[in-house]
Amino acid sequence: MPDLRFSTETPTDAEKQAVDEVVALMGPATLHLDERYVVGGRQRADQHRTLLLPALHALQNAAGWVSPGGLDYVCRMLEVPPAEAYGVATFYHLLGQESPEDNDLIHVCDDVACRLFGATELMDDLAAGGHQVKASPCLGQCERGPAVLVQRIGQQDLSVVAATKQNVEAALGAQESAASVILPQQGQEGLPLLGRIGLVDPQSLESYREHGGYRALTTALELGGDRVIEEITTAGLSGRGGAAFPTGIKWRAVADQQGRPRHVVCNADESEPGTFKDRTVMEGDPFALLEAMTIAGVSMGAEQGWIYLRGEYPVAAQRLQGAINQANTAGLLGDDVAGSGHKFTVTLRLGAGAYICGEETALFNSIEGFRGEPRNKPPFPTTHGLFGEPTAINNVETLLNVLPIVRLGGADYAASGTQGSPGTRLFCLSGRVANPGTYEHEFGVTLRQVIEAAGGVADEASIRAVLLGGAAGSFVGPEQLDLPLTLEDTRAAGVSLGSGVVMVFTAQDDLVDTVRRIAQFFRDESCGQCVPCRVGTVRQEEVLVRLGKGKALPTDEALFGDLEMVMKDASICGLGQAAASAVRSAMALGLLEVTQ
Amino acid sequence: MNETPVNAPRPLVSCTIDGQEVRVPEGSTILDACTKEGIDTPTLCWAANLTPVNVCRVCVVEVEGSRILVPSCSRPVEENMVVATDSERVRTSRRMVYELLASSVEMDRSEPEVLAWMEHYGADPDRMGPVGERATVAQPVKVEDDLYVRDYERCILCYKCVEACGDDAQQTFAIATAGRGFDAHISTEFDKTLPDSACVYCGNCIGVCPTGALVFKTEHDMRQEGTWDQASQEVTTTVCSFCGVGCNLELHVQDDRIVKVTSPADHSVTSGHLCIKGRFGWQHAQP
Fold first, then answer.
1. pLDDT 10s digits, B133-146
2. Domains of chain A
3. Touching check for A496 and chain B: CB below 8 Å?
4. pLDDT for B250-283, tens place per residue?
5. Long-range pairs for B258-266 at CB < 8 Å and ≥24 separation?
6. CB spacing of B71 vs A562 below 8 angstroms
7. CB pairs under 8 A between A and B
């Protein structure tokens, strides 16, 4: 690295202090002026780059935006070229680019679920009340919308649910979010993943242990890594983030790598519109996730664990960090995990508002301090993952399944669910159901049963469509309510379970508007790297806007077909590849017929 | 004493491209194999002297067994790979990439081969929506100094300038991609002007720009005056006399005046890149 050119802008004391606290985690990249040429070289700056996003978060919290003086100070401390750091800062929704007008910035979710429940009106109310308001993509609180996230200068972020002007204003003065987990199935027997939530104190390791916590780790250490991976393979566990890749194969591939260090990354960047299951677990039972990650780490010989949590979950962040601290103190993480001689640490990283960072390779880039742009695959994460090193990256729910598998054994675990889809699955029920929330069901349950378990819909005949699997999933019509929810049945029906979203729409809902909002979501969330997605998602939204206005062109249908094809075939990552899926399914169901 | 490094011979891998068996050294890309076989492949973000970023997706080909098309510029050939470069899927994607770009960006000053490929695939940007209603990157041209002009309504975001400014050539890191999605753009920090940025005016970003978004001020001014006439320009190759490195220069001369300086991309000393002296220090040679 040559001499970097910095500016003459200076940080405020608050900014400097906030950045210093982050940099202190590793020490500054440059200890002495000459050192980078002599001792540390590029290496130290490369290692420090991973602190870039945490440092930008610190600036945002200290000043309400990433100011020129603040950014320059971060660049000096971490030896990052200012243009690159600016490129990273402007990539994220939650990092401000202009000096704030107010202490509080209120993000109001106006995404598919919340807009059914008055999000747009709430935004107008708050703006009329003189607040600084910004529309936000899905905040992952769909079971209790409209949802609000407040960023405050010098204070913790706040999450407000079932938001009204009154309760948002009342919350602004609070220390922290009023946290509550809604679990309609609470107390129900036989829920391997959700069973403890609501009963266990999520802030107490002791309470977790009283409810059977850390017994699976003891068993896993007795069994040994190879046997644990074998049981997971026998159990037929597949990824719950959307792609359904067999977990056993992934773990085996990482365990067989020669390279070190190896990483276990938990993908907790749950940003798929309509999805909130992982949040429920992280808020209600954070130690379970840590225990599962620890089992993953010791079984694959990985020493470094990372949780990449979306930045919009302040309660989950606080619970997870508290759990990590307690586990460290109790010797359940660290140099000698539970006296086994294995080393495993867990670092919590917060995203800053970018759906694309849930794509695994974009997530790695984000942790490493680069723009969250997906990498081309191959090579795959098992060989070239985080920092280019072997990495097993799993969704929160996938990892949670490790606990019952270790406890029961792979074969017994596989006895539930169906042959092709063993085990249970978390579903995110929202929209027009009586009791929205996170539900756990065995695979094979039908769509109708899932909706009925959530209290059903007031008038079943009024169901027009169900969004299955999230914005990257597809709409299904009422005639498909008896579809068994398994990987094999949904695949055969040409749909996907995705991240477990079941969002119900009835005759009262404007589906043209919903579908247009989905198209807007992909336009807003495209990273902008590849042409098919960067421009294709814009053209797709334009087609839908024309359609909504009753001004569709005769060529639009053919155009949409070509857009769908190029995005699916030639985009770098899954975002572009799935961007037309929900729109196409809505067209096929006739949901976009506009009567003028 | 000069030492010439001798690379150990690489084993060959064989693949099938459009029905023809091709054998190439291990590690070669599909694009290398296509070139060897004489199959022309369109590219925008790829250049011989830069690391492939595979973002434009115009070089995609169909590989048997792959769910989606793959970028030929960066995917290494694997043993027994079966590649199709002119299937219906490939043609649709390539045409769409050109249409998506041309419907949002001014492409008329692109390299001649870009325009030829657009015609080859029958790209019709106007079916992307009515002019005036469809989003574009239209914006005023940036003229901030006597050497460079940045006309970002011609930018297709191929990342070549960022790579040339960064670790593929100049190691200056004055520009990077900022923003996201359709708003993504090439920028200095806080959109500072170039003289205020880390820019050292090597001109290597202009050297790699395929669409005329980055041009030398001389070219920009002559285009404004209507005197730019590429067809009448003569190119003379010489060696830069400023230092002892020995960079090859190509002087583009119109009406006995130097209007632009480049360096051949395949030159062993420069790989097409120069410094401010070679690129701009020619005023003393003007009559």
1. 999 999 999 999 99
2. 13-89 (no CATH), 104-171 (3.40.30.10), 205-413 (3.40.50.11540), 424-506 (3.10.20.600), 511-588 (1.20.1440.230)
3. no
4. 999 999 999 999 999 889 999 999 999 999 999 8
5. B258/B282, B258/B285, B258/B286, B259/B216, B259/B218, B259/B219, B259/B222, B259/B228, B259/B233, B260/B216, B260/B218, B260/B219, B261/B203, B262/B207, B263/B207, B264/B237, B265/B47, B265/B48, B265/B49, B266/B48
6. no
7. 160
